[in-house]
Amino acid sequence: MNGKEEEQGSNGLCDDAMAITYNNLYLDIRQQLKRSGIEAATLEARELVCFGTDKTRDELTRDGSLYVAPATEQRVRALVDRHLAGEPVAYLIGEWEFYGLPLDISDDVLIPRPDTEVLAEQAIEYVRTLGECRVLDLCAGSGCIGLAVASQAPEARVVLGEYSDAALRVCRQNIRRNGLSGRVVPMHANALEKPEKMLGEFQCIVSNPPYIPSADIAGLDVSVRDYEPHLALDGGEDGLDFYRAIVDKWTDALVPGGRLYFEVGIGQADSVLRIMRAKGFGDIQIVKDPADIPRVVFGTLMEEV
């Protein structure tokens, strides 16, 4: 049976009242997501249809005029129902893209956001000027930031520091998936505790730590509150526990003249700046994301400290 016969049925005929082509299924789901207020409806519809039909993007385009088997359509629509109930697309399909890199994603790690690409871009711009260097991605989660740095700065050696064993497994998968095993290593690390001296020093530390105030978690969107790991969200009473700990305890792992880069939550940039300044960082800068929200704070560990 050829591909078209398989999709249309053994007699080559389709019930016009029920049958739907791949292209029309995609368009139907995109419209459904748009009506629900989802801004990224085009991207999410494509990803759900590709995953549910087990087709690549190119195959979906190629087979757009073919009819979808009823069981396949049901599988796709079940995924859409779960998504509309709050389950993020990245968890449904088990992967997502960040800074052009394909990443395995599980509910043990945060889903990489476009906002975080601002942090990656700032760190990459700096690391590229260093030549051979060591970079630490602390609170690495999926490893997205450190892997982006390694992919764009070939002379850098990157350590993905993460506390969760389950998240470290995802890091290992993503290192292998992106062919970076020679320059990126995962490491168990608790950002709230002082690192061992044997870890050595880094020219750059980058971190997207948990920064949601504990009391605010209950009010988060259901897609975050009910699906993303609270361990990666909860930043303590005021959301700043990890910034204080990293600046206080991890400075010894940064060479004098090295830089520390943070992603911060809405309204936290000035507080993080003050935390860094009090511990000997200078040339501190705040960078906004595409929505004009202060999103990245970075500074240089001054030589005299």
Account of the protein in words:
- The structure is a single chain.
- With 305 residues, the chain is of the alpha/beta class.
- It folds into two domains: 3-85, no CATH class; 95-301, Vaccinia Virus protein VP39 (Rossmann fold, 3-Layer(aba) Sandwich), CATH 3.40.50.
- Helix content is 39%, strand content 19%.
- Strands 5-4-3-6-7-9-8 form a seven-stranded mixed sheet, with helices on both faces. A two-stranded antiparallel ribbon has the order 1-2.
- Helix 3 (41-53) crosses helix 5 and helix 7 (114-127) crosses helix 8.
- The termini are far apart.
- Residues 1-17 have low confidence and may be disordered.
Biggest sheet details: 7 strands, mixed
Give the CATH superfamily of the largest domain: Vaccinia Virus protein VP39
Overall tally of domains: 2
Share of helical residues: 25-40%
Relative strand content:
15-25%
**How would the global form be characterised?**
elongated
The overall average pLDDT, rounded, is 93
**Largest beta sheet: strand ordering:** 5-4-3-6-7-9-8
Under CATH, the topology of the largest domain is which?
Rossmann fold
Distinct helical segment count: 12
Global Rg? 22 Å
Unreliable residue stretches: 1-17
Structural class, by secondary structure, is alpha/beta
CATH architecture of the largest domain: 3-Layer(aba) Sandwich
Spatial gap, N to C terminus: 73 Å
The CATH class designation of the largest domain is: Alpha Beta
